[in-house]
Structure formats: C-alpha cells, structure tokens
Amino acid sequence: MSEAQLSGEQVSTPVILVVDDNAQVRKMLSSYLARNNHRVTTAKDGKEGWDIITDEKCKFDLIFADVKMPVMNGLELLEKIRENEYEVPVIIMTGYA
C-alpha cells in the first residue's frame, strides 16, 4: 500500500494508452499495466491512437507508442500530439535495434 493510500488521500488510477501494431505487444504491455493498477486503452496504429486521443480529449497520463507502424507511425503520432499542445508524456518504443 502506498503512503497516499495509508494516509487516506484520494489516489487516482493512472490512465495509459498503448499504441502498437503488434497484437502480442499490445496485450503483453496492457496486461502488465492493468495488473499494476493502471487503466489501459489500446490502439492498433497511430491513426487509431490519434482518434482515441481526440475522442477522449487526451485524458491520458501516459502514452506508449511503437515507432514503426502502418498508417501513422509513433513519431507522426507524437508530432500531432505536440502540434495540438496536449501535455502528456509519450514513450516511443521499438522492437528494432
């Protein structure tokens, strides 16, 4: 239990968006985050991620985005997020080294 929970403070559940074209990666990461008390939404590519972000008015605490995806890649998604002045941390991931 965290110090905030012990002190009786209201603790909000972090809301995270996972954007990856690989279904196994989406499932693995979202399952891990959910087990660690995060609310998770997933998208299969940057375009779907962007649609979710704009529908939700970017109420995410963190976004994970794969760098290489069809339709809109992670860097293009990050650019749109910044162009629209959404203040959310974005972690760009890659399976290519």
Folded structure, characterized:
A 4-stranded parallel sheet has the order 2-1-3-4, sandwiched between helices. Strand 3, helix 4 (74-83) and strand 4 form a beta-alpha-beta unit. It is α/β, with parallel strands linked by helices and 97 residues long. The protein has helices at residues 3-7, 23-35, 46-55, 74-83, and strands at 15-19, 39-43, 62-66, 90-93. It is globular and about 40 Å long. Helix 3 runs parallel beside helix 4.
Quick synopsis:
By secondary structure, this protein is α/β, with parallel strands linked by helices.
- Give me the secondary-structure category: alpha/beta
Which regions are unreliable across 5 or more consecutive residues at pLDDT < 50?
1-6
Q: Looking across the biggest beta sheet, what order are the strands in?
A: 2-1-3-4
Largest sheet: number of strands, sense, barrel closure? 4 strands, parallel
Number of helical runs?
A: 4
